[in-house]
């Protein structure tokens, strides 16, 4: 008989589910914990992760936001254990759309993303609060489109002090990657115990 309502399941690989069911499928709110300690808490729809939920890595990273068909998609916030943070849009498990990436030293990129990398127009904020507009392509800055300025001050500031310092070389994967570690996605079937973590760099 198909299960409805609240329930629990334990799987041979050591993973476990606690939450709501409908017609035998995970549907509603639930928590799925993998044998390695990674955990998802949030919405399920017909055995898929879909809606809003939080994923907790066993190394301390966290994502809280929207999901579609087992992948990070929509608005979300991703935090790293070293204090870095991204708040913005995701598509198919990678940063895509508008988003803000903040570094631990106070630098910040607020702008467009494509396939996990800065791509399009954005504003770079230096650690001292100075701002500068620019254009990025595939994670690398193409050029600046303004001089240095301050919020609420239309006059450009002298940017001699910024030359050679710029944005900590954002052409690297420092902003576009996930610290060199993989990000899980999910492969769900009728037998949810076959959910697997598959490495996906460049989130």
Automatic annotation (TrEMBL):
Transmembrane segments: none annotated. Pfam families: MORN (PF02493). Gene3D superfamilies: Histone H3 K4-specific methyltransferase SET7/9 N-terminal domain. Keywords: Repeat. It comes from the Eukaryota. InterPro entries: MORN. One of its GO terms (cellular component) is cytosol. This is Uncharacterized protein. The keyword Repeat applies. Residues 159-168 have a biased composition (Basic and acidic residues). Residues 155-183 are annotated as: Disordered.
